[in-house]
Amino acid sequence: MPLLAIIAVLAAGLGVALQPPTNAALARAGGSVVLASLISFAIGTALLLVAWLAAGRPGGGGLRDAPAWAWVGGFYGACFVAALAYATPRLGLASTLTLAIASQLVAALLLDRWGALGLAPTSIGTGRLLGVALVIAGAVLVRRG
């Protein structure tokens, strides 16, 4: 397995755990989950712009040929950030994240199965179903406390 990819995903996972309570605190202070999410995305956008400029502005030539559905990733991200900023103070971080992860894995199984959104089709075997079932069971256990 590519070590750099594993490290990147682990670091991103830490960020996913830190982001909801951070945004929830900003929402409490500012009085709006939507405003907190907007600020979060504005800061993230600024960071990515600086990184892109620092890298010499690579890519971009084929964007006109991207399928229409490829342009809505930011919509999903905005909904995710706002939903977790809203849910975290109400459900707790562990419950919020286990529910989010469980729903992500169910969606991932289905997207993999049908090769949707440009993915290579991957069968849903017993091991994959059992793994997702265990995560869903874990979400239920975490929620019940």
Automatic annotation (TrEMBL):
GO terms for cellular component: plasma membrane. Keywords: Membrane, Transmembrane, Transmembrane helix. InterPro entries: YdcZ. It comes from the Bacteria. The chain crosses the membrane at residues 34-56, 68-87, 93-111, 123-142. PANTHER family: INNER MEMBRANE PROTEIN YDCZ. This is Transporter family-2 protein. It comes from Sphingomonas rubra.
